[in-house]
Fold each of these.
Amino acid sequence: MRKLSEMHFYLDKIPEPEELAVFFSDALSMAVSTLDDPIDEAPAFLQLTPYESGSFPLGVNIAWNPSHASHMSHIEIAVRLSRFCNAQVVTDLPDGYPRKADPFRWCIAEPDGSLSEISECMTDEKDGLELDETSKKGMAENVEVAHGEIRIWIEPDSGFFIKMPAESGDSVRLSGQEARKLADVLVTMADRAEKIGGAIEHV
């Protein structure tokens, strides 16, 4: 039996279940079944878990048959969900991201489209998710190139940063594919920085 594809989210508000079902059906381009509205043969199932404590009172789990491919990552869906619900949305860090393996590090999406990395508060006095706001920092986008890696990130209070650690110290020449990828990421990060009022800086 093939393992289901899944995404997990936490919201700081509780929207109507019907609204979330419509959102995920549109985002995943597939029918979504719920406990309250079961749909025969729907490839996806939405499960909502309310919590009595913590800053994020709703847990959202969406699972679907892997034969139906999702065309968006969980990060892209978190950003869209945050705007749709006008809420903060927490999800796993992106695949390949530093500290991805740390179960207490999360990605948080804001309604303005910004993304941050944040730590979970370590306390047993809750059943929901509680985050440490003092640990929040801008998310980095990494573009791998032949001689190293370009890191691009936003610090909400400081601006938009670019860093190219080349092992040799020499200038780096990008291939056409690398240049196009870098250009795409620059546009995305510049849009995010503009939305949260960050100045553009090069480091």
Amino acid sequence: MEKQIVINADIFILFKTLLDDMIQNAGGKTRKILTELRIGLQSDSSLRDSLDEVSYLENSKNSDPIVIAVCYFFIARSFSKRSDFIISLELLERAEMLLMESQPDLAELLKKEIYVLKMAYHYSEN
């Protein structure tokens, strides 16, 4: 039996729309990373590279937390497709933390999604 956690389609569409808007409004290295992430959504290649790039953005303190959170959301989605559930959940939790102050509604959506994913993960493990 194949195990896979599926992220809610409505949340995916919301975050995809945010990503597309951010690509249009960002500049420099942030735009490059967002564009590469968008391209990576189709292939799931170079996930670790994308994660390293987003971590760089987060550590540089030059990017809006919502940009980082959206990136983590999509990287988490890709990890869940590969059945790397622990990494996926960790990234979603990081995204939630980043959104808590500036986007509490989005953070609440992610919190609910994380809960469902944890339940599904624990169910699939047993």
Amino acid sequence: MVSYTLISTVFAAIATAVSANMAPSEPAPNTIWTTGQSSLIQWADDSTSPPLATDWKKFKIDLMTGDNTNQIFLTNVATGLDGTAATTLNWTAPDVDVHSAIYFLMFTSLTKATDMAWTTRFAIVGADGVQTAPANAAQPDKSTLDGKPIPWGVGHLVNSASGSAATNSVIASTAPALSLSNAAPAATSSGAAVSAAGASQAASSPSTSQKSSASKVLATAGLGLAAVAAVMMAM
């Protein structure tokens, strides 16, 4: 398990380094995955420039947990995905030991490491469906989403095998309509991070054009521009 600590300084000048065309839409706010069951992951081209074919011909998805400035990698979901050939992935939810809305997915381009996108935080529960509230009501860096604190916590895989890379079907389709609301629920606030120590990760959960408002994208992902700065400085 690797924790990625991000630089806290915000650089507005590099806001455009965040991907403006990869738009994850599932898991969405209030999504609950059940261990052992097939779970939907979905993304789309948000129709802004550059198109997915430019930087997202090859990308990976990682399951993450933790707060916005101390991201914790749990397992790789899939690697080598082609964003222009498919927009849906089915993945079996792993067994975790904290059943709460403290998990999120990080999308990272393998063509351009500074292109990243995040989903909102979502819950993973056991067969009984019981879910607890996130352990922390607000982010350490005081970041908010639509003026509201962003809850978070730290989860763990029960065993590494349960979180192995996806071998499930990748379904080709046209770009789906985005289903995320601008204001994520308190327990499922958008979350994410950027890997700085040799492994690239990350993603935002856009419900509107990311490029038209870089600051909105970062807020929706529950991040500051520090995330991008960390990657740029680590290169």
Amino acid sequence: MQLIFIRHGDPDYVNDTLTEKGRREAQLLANIIDKYGIDEIYQSPLGRAKDTAAYCVEKLGLPVTTLDWLQEFPGQVNANVSEDVRKAFATELEINPETGEYKNRIMWDMLPSYYGSHPELFDVNEWKKSPLFDGGNALEVYEHVIECFDKFLADNGYVRDGLTYKVENGNDKTIAFFCHYGITSVLLSRLWNVSPFVPLQVTALAPTSVTVVASEERQKGIGIFRTLRAGDISHLIIGDEEPSFSARFCEKYENEDERH
């Protein structure tokens, strides 16, 4: 079985849709989507993911199912609980003018000075004990998402068993998920058996990029998942479309026109 994670096109976050660039990216993806041999399509309930999927759905003529847990990972960090948490996101904290408190925010894109001094964040077990999660709901949301993902895989024949999977119905289906960078990183971390901060902090999957993961059953009844490609943007290269900078930060500090 193959799982294909496709990030939405260049986003208009304010209106939860695609920019004109994002629509060009989605069309370029649709131009080659039939090469992947997709059997089933699932999408996030958010507009930017659904708008991206629509181009490929029209090309393939397949039905599409919306899964609520494929929305961008909604777990929140509460920066009001401690100075330690505020240090993690010091350059991007926002104040709620009505309450005077810091707004909750996503748990990734922390400053390198913070995770450089908190190695537990990259430990497969210890990351859950981080003070980042005090007062927020990120851990609760994480557990819910993983429960949903495990059930989805079990329903398709792969039952979680420690660090591997019991293969109860091995198959050659190809399943596409049209979703988001954050949720893709969380789901990949489950398949890779690593902390979610590994993909969240050391990858940047560009808009409309394609990540392919395939099952392996080298021993009867015991499965794992291996990543065949991550963040593939060959469709953009073929179409002479510059990849979006979304999810990235400045290559060097002096680059004032790039996100810091």
